């Protein structure tokens, strides 16, 4: 009798062990009902983080531009102010975050288990304790866009005074011994120099600077012993020459601005092209298209590395009955090329891992009957790294 009871108890234990210990369903299941021993976890997805450096070039014509050819034989100088924007640098990085379209609820049939998460509720391991580390968040500081509000001031580098004395001659009639005579009267008047006079003086002084620099460079010193700071003197003369030359050819001021854009690829796209922003010479980066703007695109090309895996599992699903209970879901990540382009111009290209472009599969629920089951997931891709029963 005792032997019969022992056999019945053993059969009951075996039958209970055959019952699935776990069931995992997506949170998007419309018939889902929260019960005891249920927990939520997510698989990761990648958001593309794009930092763009745009250089804005402002040109201001010189005040003596009109006389550049006459006094310095400088031709084709620009008479009008202009603004030009161009992309100097692009940095493409990735941010790992929970995928709301790949979030699941785990139902356990037993109370004792160990499910380990990352800081953002992304699954890291099952049945084994993993070290908890805070993820690295890209928190780069971006410069606030700055523009020139006022015109660049040209310093009048003339070494001569701005006024000249003009002698005005008038005549008066006087009577000497009954004879009338016309006598000149000289009147001195101080007045400002004409603009062309200032331009001529600036051009002459520029030529003197060049002559002085030439003598220093060719060793024509006023004393037999050369000065100890010849290089410094030449450098200072070159700076002064640039200032005077700018009065005729104009000045160029460059300002760099940094912008940040984020783009989250869809899960089932083979190729996607979106407008990141519009680049305008006058206004720089703008969100909406204006008259002088050009669109800058972010182009994603899915490499399709999991296409054969997807077809294989789809065939298996058609050949076999669907499992009533499912184990933990995981990802087989995909890869894609990210390109920043404008028409035929390609500014940047990078191949990155995009988990959502891969395939989502699940482990068999029967696997979780093993009490010593240990599974480690990659929190950046959602893939299974190791499975063991130690």
Write structural notes for this entry.
With 390 residues, this protein is α+β, with helices and mostly antiparallel strands. The two termini are 39 Å apart. It has 2 domains: 285 residues, no CATH class; 87 residues, no CATH class. The strands form 4 sheets. It has a 5-stranded antiparallel β-sheet with strand order 10-9-11-12-13, with helices on one face. Strands 1-3-2-8 form a 4-stranded antiparallel β-sheet. A 4-stranded antiparallel β-sheet has the order 4-5-14-15, with no helix packed on it.
If helices are DSSP runs of H or I spanning 4 or more residues, what is the number of helices? 5
What number is the mean pLDDT? 81
Percent helix, as a range, is 10-25%
Total E-strand runs: 15
Q: What is the straight-line distance between the termini?
A: 39 Å
Q: What's the SSE pattern?
A: HEEHEEEEEHHEEEEHEEEE
- Low-pLDDT stretches: 1-19, 132-143
Radius of gyration over C-alpha positions, nearest whole angstrom: 40 Å
Tell me the fraction of residues in β-strands, as a range. Answer: 35-45%
Described by the principal axes of the CA atoms, the overall outline is rod-shaped
Summing up helix and strand content along with how strands pair, one would put the structural category as alpha+beta
- How many domains comprise the coordinates? 2
Strand adjacency order, main sheet: 10-9-11-12-13
Task: Report the biggest beta sheet as strand number plus sense, adding barrel if it closes.
Answer: 5 strands, antiparallel
């Amino acid at each position: 009798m005792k032997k019969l009871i022992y056999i019945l108890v053993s059969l009951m234990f075996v039958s209970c062990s055959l019952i699935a210990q776990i069931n995992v369903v997506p949170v998007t299941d419309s018939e889902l009902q929260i019960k005891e021993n249920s927990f939520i976890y997510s698989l990761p997805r990648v958001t593309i983080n794009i930092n763009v450096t745009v250089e804005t070039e402002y040109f201001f014509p010189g005040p003596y531009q009109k006389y550049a050819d006459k006094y310095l034989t400088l031709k084709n100088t620009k008479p009008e102010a202009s603004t030009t924007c161009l992309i100097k640098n692009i940095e493409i990085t990735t941010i790992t975050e929970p995928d709301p379209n790949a979030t699941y609820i785990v139902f356990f049939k037993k109370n004792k288990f160990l499910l380990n998460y990352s800081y953002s509720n992304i699954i890291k391991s099952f049945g084994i304790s993993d070290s908890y580390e805070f993820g690295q968040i890209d928190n780069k500081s971006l410069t606030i866009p700055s523009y020139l509000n006022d015109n660049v001031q040209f310093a009048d580098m003339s070494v001569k005074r701005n006024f000249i004395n003009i002698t005005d001659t008038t005549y008066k009639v006087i009577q000497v011994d009954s004879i009338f005579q016309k006598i000149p009267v000289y009147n001195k008047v101080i007045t400002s120099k004409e603009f062309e006079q200032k331009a001529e003086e600036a051009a002459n002084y520029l030529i003197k600077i060049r002559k002085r620099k030439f003598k220093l460079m060719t060793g024509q010193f006023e004393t037999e012993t050369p000065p100890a700071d010849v290089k410094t003197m030449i450098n200072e003369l070159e700076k002064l020459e640039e200032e005077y030359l700018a009065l005729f050819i104009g000045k160029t001021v460059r300002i760099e601005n940094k912008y940040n854009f984020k783009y989250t690829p869809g899960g089932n796209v083979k190729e996607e092209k979106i407008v990141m922003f519009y680049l305008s010479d006058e206004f720089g980066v703008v969100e909406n298209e204006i008259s002088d703007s050009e669109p800058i695109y972010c182009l994603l090309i899915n490499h399709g590395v999991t296409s054969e895996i997807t077809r294989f599992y789809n065939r298996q699903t058609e050949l076999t009955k669907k499992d009533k209970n499912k184990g933990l879901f995981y990802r087989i990540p995909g890869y894609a090329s990210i390109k920043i382009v404008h028409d035929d111009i390609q500014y940047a290209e990078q191949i990155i891992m995009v988990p959502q472009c891969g395939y989502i599969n699940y482990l068999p629920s029967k696997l979780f009957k093993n009490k010593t089951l240990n599974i480690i997931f990659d929190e950046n891709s959602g893939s299974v790294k190791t499975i063991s029963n130690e």
